[in-house]
Structures are given as C-alpha cells and as structure tokens.
Design goal:
This protein has a domain at 21-73. Strand 1 and strand 2 (63-73) form a beta hairpin. The chain is flat, with a radius of gyration of 17 Å. It has one helix spanning 19-43, and strands spanning 46-57, 63-73. Helices cover 32% and strands 29% of the residues. A two-stranded antiparallel sheet has the order 1-2. It has 78 residues and is α+β, with helices and mostly antiparallel strands. It contains one helix and two strands, in the order αββ.
Length: 78
C-alpha cells in the first residue's frame, strides 16, 4: 500500500458529476493548489497578496473574479 505524501492533494474522480459540479470542483482544486503555493512562498520569505484585476461575466448573470499575485520579498537585514 502506497502512502500519500503529506500535503499532496488528490481529488477523487467522480464520473457522476454534473457540468456545474465539475466546474465548482475544478475551481476548488485550483484554489487549494494556489493556497499550497502561497504557503511555500511565504515559508521561502516572500509576502503574497492576490489582487482582483478583472471580473468575467458570461452575459447570463454569472461572474467570476480574475486575480494576479503581487509579491514582496522580505527585507534583508544587515
């Protein structure tokens, strides 16, 4: 039996998902991976802030924020 390394995220496949459920899961998976990357960046000595740069509309009342990170490296002492 292979143990999954701690911190590795593996979503379970679900072939019975609707398109809506699959879309929500994809966003949740991506946010989880982004959060892990942010933790690693902070542990490496940088500050990360997500900034909304645009909002996507589909013309049917649905929308989603699109973001970019701003990075600030730690000040070096000395």
């Amino acid at each position: 039996m292979n143990a999954m390394p701690q911190g590795e995220f593996r979503p379970l496949p679900n072939t019975n998902e609707t398109d809506h459920e699959r879309a929500v899961r994809r966003v949740a998976d991506a946010v989880h991976r982004a959060n892990e990357a942010i933790l690693r960046a902070v542990d490496a000595g940088v500050s990360v802030e997500l900034i909304r740069v645009s909002r996507y509309h589909d013309g049917r009342g649905n929308w989603g924020d699109q973001m970019v990170p701003t990075i600030r490296e730690a000040k070096k002492e000395g």
